[in-house]
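Q: Joint fold for the lines below.
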Amino acid sequence: MRTARNYLRREPSVLAAWVVLALIVGIWLAGTSNLSVLSVTIMIGQKVPLVLASIGAAIVIMSRGIDLSVGAVLTVVNTIIAAGTAAHGNSVVWIGVGMGVALAAGAINGLCVAWLRLPPLIVTLAVQSILLGVALYVLPTPGGKVDGWLKDLPLLLVGPIPLMLLIVIAVPLVTWYPLRRSRFGPALLSSGADEGAAYASGINVKKTVVSSYMLSAFFAGLAGVIMSMNTGSGDPTIGVPFTLNTIAAAVVGGVSLAGGRGTIAGPIAGALVVSFIGNLLFSMGVNSYWQYVVTGGVLIVAIAIPTGLRAIRAGRQAP
Amino acid sequence: MNQVGTSGSPLIELRGVQKHFGGVQAVRGVDFVVPAGTITGLAGENGAGKSTLLKVLAGLYQPDAGEVWYYGELQSGLTPSLAKKAGVAYVAQELSLFEDLPVSENILIGQEPMWGPLVNRQRLYAEAKRALDIIGSEIDPDAMVRDLAFADRQLVEIAKAMVGSPRVLVLDEPTSGLRQAEVGRLIELMKDLKKTGCSVVFITHRMGEFFEACDRMTVLRDGAHIATLDIGEATPSQVVDMMIGRQLAEVFPAKQETEPDAPTGDALVMKDFTVHGTRVRGVTVSLQRGEVLGIAGLAGNGQTELLEGMAGVRKATGEYRVGSTVGPFRSVRSALRAGVALVPEDRKRHGLVLAMAVYRNLTLPVLRGLSRWGLVNGAREGSMVKGVISAVQITPPNAEVPVESMSGGNQQKVVIGKTLLTEPDVYLLSDPTRGIDVKTKFEIYSLIRRLAASGKAVVLVSTDLAEITSLCDRVLVMASGRVVAELGGDYINEREITRASFEAVAV
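A: Joint structure:
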């Protein structure tokens, strides 16, 4: 009870993000008549990668960093699974290889930022470039394949509930929640808020920052695995639009780009907002070029909400 | 771990500690001993090296030379977390709390009670509550630090130090933000700790607190150890004398005759002036043309913030009139238009665009006046720059080099020159000679006097008392955001100023 109350007091913009999401989904549902269990299941599956990748991006932003390699990590994992399975079979092994590469990329990001003190924007941009090169080497053109049973997973229902919906709920619960409740939680937020003060409080800031980038890569890799299941093949350009959407999702969900504050429930709602805008506009029959324009506009409004809430809070404090 | 040292062997000993920052020697070979079961006060003027010494003691700074001994063991590569593990708890002057974490997580950060791999929330709450109880505070451990008042944040910081039962508690000016009753409770707490054989090292700027709380006192001046004495054998005035010491041989220009045709009258009138988001409250001042008004006080008592409020940097309320223009100003631009210009405290961050050439730094605020159809008139700019460079004596007079390649003294002259070009009636100077050599200081002092002689008004904030006493016609002393004394004539001397700033007790 105390925890829940604290949670909202800490971050009222989380509530705001979910309200915005409910509005968008509500309008979309009202305007969409021919929903089947299958189409809803597929649609949920399509949203999972962005949700997972946004969790990782948000963790890095909380440490006052930024991760521009999210989309490329996702792509590399996807191409490794697709090309590997096509050549040698057994997707599970290639999922393992892909995740290994993802974690290595995250470690490079983290080490460059924490130990070499290089700017995260450039480090992760460079790592993105390297990874996209690797992806093209592994799979020069779209293709490859994924084991059949994996392809069927996004369509699977557990009782009446789509498996992918369970994954969206379960993954944050079994990964982020324990992390936040462990020492890593306060270490992450304090390092992001004030590195010097965190160091003076005995926090291992470097380890915390490296961990945040590795977590980001882990979630991006997981997103790549789900993506491979969804498409049943590989594509060396698949992840490009993801990177900036994950950052948008984090900010819409109330994670401060200045670091030191944020939740994961917020970015999850943010990711769903970002992707549901597309569904909504499509179902309204909006032209594809207008979709881009409106998406941008809605994003600005959605980001203005947490920023505005914060300004109001800060204003009330002024003596 | 919990055994208590006998009174013979000190808990902490610093030997020959030296520490410099850039060209400034902050601590010059200081020996400092913390015996068991004592409360030691550390006294000294601004910049005497008190905080630096304590940061070396607590592992935040590595000394350039010298040794740190804990419990008779030499410490090398000391870090804050090692110091804390060894039972040395340090509370910094500048608060180091995380606004977006609750009080409980702040108090136990880095040493949370665990439940397997997870933080044990129940115990976290209970232990935070216990630490707050020790210092007699009723702050809710679940409250967000962001929502706490300044004094409560200070208390949380002290509670944080109490976790893990420290053997040595190091408090760098803990009382400046506290309310009167809380100061009393803190001193009680220090005395309780002493009874258990622990020791406290304590900086304050209030003389009374030294004599109320401490057993012994160490006085630092200009980074050097001056004396350590038992409180019984010290008197307040003697301590003040030791803090001031003999004056450095600095030359100050004589006050000049006012030019006959210089304008006179009120330059600025301010009544009940309050600067938002700071402690500056209810300041009433009037300033004559041709006057140099000094604002003295211990660092961080609102002097800088007052100037920022006057210059439109910070939002302010109250009656405020400059010439015929009524303030407070909502932007630096409107303050400039009314004739008030600030030479900011941090010249590198607020005064200069470091990578830009000297001439462009100088003319940046007046480019509009130099431009026609959006293009800068190079010839006029050139002659203007030449005039200013000779007025403020930038040497060598090279206008093309980037400012970052110049010495600190020249950089400061560029900032002042830039201000001259905006032709204000009121100059607000915030510590204009910080980190500057003596010769340049003299040139800046002469310039200040010349400005006053030509009918400009100057407000000078400085933590250098010699500067204040030698340059100013009138001096205000600030403490806790208020003006606590106004000194004129023969009362402008270091003794009076030091007395006023130390005796003033915040309410």
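Q: Anything notable?
A: The longest strand of chain B covers residues 24-34. DSSP finds 18 helices and 24 strands in chain B.
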